[in-house]
Design goal:
- By secondary structure, the chain is of the alpha+beta class.
- 31% of the residues lie in helices and 35% in strands.
- It has a single domain, classed as SecB-like (Bacterial Protein-export protein SecB, Roll), CATH 3.10.420.10.
- It has a four-stranded antiparallel β-sheet.
- Strand 2 and strand 3 form a beta hairpin.
- The termini are far apart.
């Protein structure tokens, strides 16, 4: 067999495109924190074509972790205005990879870019987020498994609601 098979998906490089970690209420937050804060996670996949004449794409897994603790209840005066939660930290990570597709049918390009590529990037982004939150003096944020197929399907449904019912 002298023929060499070209893989349909090649990850050329992966990298941290953007990383931000903020503790807006430091140093006081470290004395207020008595338990693990509530963490809201948002995740998005962004795709950008890099070459018009080739199937080369930058795929970015954008993750935001925002931790907060409930505000202390106000005493006595019956304020109708609810006390705001206190922000513990905000971590923003954009983790990217450059991917080349070879001999991929047109109808498979979108699922590869929005499902397979983020699946390859995810473990690395997960580790970076855990390390940065731990290094910031907090319990590490450990992202659970992500169903990228469901995310892709939800995105398609939002983009074209009529087609989702077909």
């Amino acid at each position: 067999m002298s023929e060499t098979q070209i893989a349909p998906l090649t990850m050329n490089i992966q990298y941290t495109k953007d990383l931000s970690f903020e503790v807006p209420n430091a140093p006081a937050i470290y004395t207020l924190l008595r338990e693990t804060p509530a963490v809201n996670i948002s995740l998005d996949v962004q795709v950008r074509r890099l070459q018009e004449d080739a199937l080369v794409f930058e795929v970015t897994l954008a993750t935001r972790a925002e931790a907060s603790i409930p505000a202390a209840p106000k005493s006595g005066n019956g304020d109708a205005e609810a006390a705001k939660d206190t922000t513990v930290f905000i971590a923003d990570l954009a983790y990217s990879g450059i991917f080349t597709l070879q001999n991929v049918p047109e109808n498979q390009i979108e699922p590869i870019l929005l499902v397979e590529c983020p699946r390859l990037l995810f473990p690395f982004a997960r580790n970076i987020l855990a390390d940065v939150t731990r290094d910031g003096g907090f319990p590490p944020v450990m992202l659970g498994p992500v169903d990228f197929v469901s995310l892709w399907q939800a995105r398609r449904q939002q983009a074209n609601p009529a087609q989702a019912n077909a």
